[in-house]
Specification:
single chain, 9-stranded mixed β-sheet, two-stranded parallel ribbon, 13 strands, about 30% helix
Length: about 220
């Protein structure tokens, strides 16, 4: 950790070792809305978990954190176990009084190769994080900073935005919001996404072909 703080209040579990690189690459072209459609519109975080700057997007396995409201000790400890491409998913109990994330943690995330951060709670330093280019989804912002006492847990199942996230589940997030793909369902979801993409593209062609003659007849 980059901070000097005791971690005896934290529970740290081993991170999953499932290889997911091919699944992540396969999911990257698809918008989160389509991912939700491929899961019967389930496993989507509620609309309170929103992109904190436009055009942010990420896909990757979840590195999960459970922490109490207004405390980010467990977040700092989790980043010691981060691997490039992880999406940091923080259950801060939906706290709306103090931020648990800010620009210094964003710098650490970028150094660790974190692809994005999802917080059931608040961030701060939104402008600085945007300038750094780290995609963040959260319930909002507050200038009030966190404590660093714990308790908390790393690499455990968490609730985030009304959805269960297990360590290693695949996260896709964009301007529309955040979807959680249970790892055991990922291959099936990817196949379904390919079907949805073909259906939508065929439908777009039909729509455009039907509009073009109508426009030509008016000229």
């Amino acid at each position: 950790m980059y901070i000097d703080a005791a971690t005896t209040s934290l529970t740290v579990s081993p991170r999953p070792t499932n290889p997911v690189t091919e699944l992540v690459e396969g999911l990257k072209p698809y918008p989160t809305a389509n991912v939700g459609d491929a899961m019967d519109r389930l496993n989507l975080m509620d609309t309170g978990i929103a992109s904190q700057w436009a055009t942010g997007r990420c896909v990757g396995p979840a590195l999960t954190v459970l922490t109490r409201e207004g405390d980010n000790l467990a977040v700092h400890r989790a980043l010691d176990d981060a691997e490039p491409g992880d999406v940091l998913v923080i259950n801060a109990l939906g706290g709306t009084t103090r931020a648990v994330f800010g620009d210094l943690l964003a710098e650490i995330c970028l150094a660790a190769g974190i692809a994005g951060v999802v917080i059931d709670g608040l961030t701060r330093d939104r402008a600085a994080i945007k300038d750094l280019g780290l995609p963040v989804w959260a319930r909002g912002v507050s200038p009030a900073g966190p404590a660093k006492y714990g308790p908390g847990a790393v690499s455990v199942p968490v609730a985030c935005g009304g959805t269960v996230v297990n360590p290693g589940d695949l996260i896709t997030a964009d301007d529309d919001g955040v979807a959680v793909i249970p790892l055991e369902r990922a291959e099936g979801v990817l196949r379904r996404l390919e079907e949805i993409d073909k259906f939508e593209e065929d439908l777009r062609v039909r729509i455009r072909n039907s509009v073009a003659p109508a426009l030509a007849s008016t000229t």
